[in-house]
Amino acid sequence: NAGVTQTPKFQVLKTGQSMTLQCAQDMNHEYMSWYRQDPGMGLRLIHYSVGAGITDQGEVPNGYNVSRSTTEDFPLRLLSAAPSQTSVYFCASSYVAGGENYGYTFGSGTRLTVV
Amino acid sequence: LAKTTQPISMDSYEGQEVNITCSHNNIATNDYITWYQQFPSQGPRFIIQGYKTKVTNEVASLFIPADRKSSTLSLPRVSLSDTAVYYCLGGQGFSFIFGKGTRLLVKP
Fold first, then answer.
1. How far does the CA of residue A79 sit from the closest CA of chain B (Å)?
2. How far apart (Å, rounded) are the C-alpha atoms in residues B82 and A34?
């Protein structure tokens, strides 16, 4: 099925460990984003990409790295996990043309706990 | 980026029409208004998007007055399954900011 696939669905890390959250989409969307959502909160933008080889920071980029080597994949790397990064992470992609965003498609999320 | 303001929560009953209003006083000329729905443990789902006047699809209607400083999402005849958080966003291209949304509770 077409859409955004995130792996893993659940992850527990120890403080200081690093890991990569995977995100892949098969809709040939140029725009991809990573959000985090804390309990009872809205989504906050971490990083985004407007195409392969182009990334930029969002609202809360500290502690995270991204790269975009292909249109399909947009991995999010946690450099040194901290308890404050315990959250649910969502990846999204969208098609934009003529300035109009035709709506984000979100993945099902990765629930990360840092102990 | 457009900052939006929505009610934190709303209650309704099955079969009623629900209207959720969003304020976006600093919306830019080229910004669209978009609404998303999020169920627990799921990613947000696109509902509807508009620029001005009225847009309708099979799920909802979106009303945007001429000054575009606010918008209203209308959900006709809600059911229990419409219980969710609804987000109003203003922006264009890739620059969208999600607020805390409106938590809608539909009661039997």
1. 24
2. 26
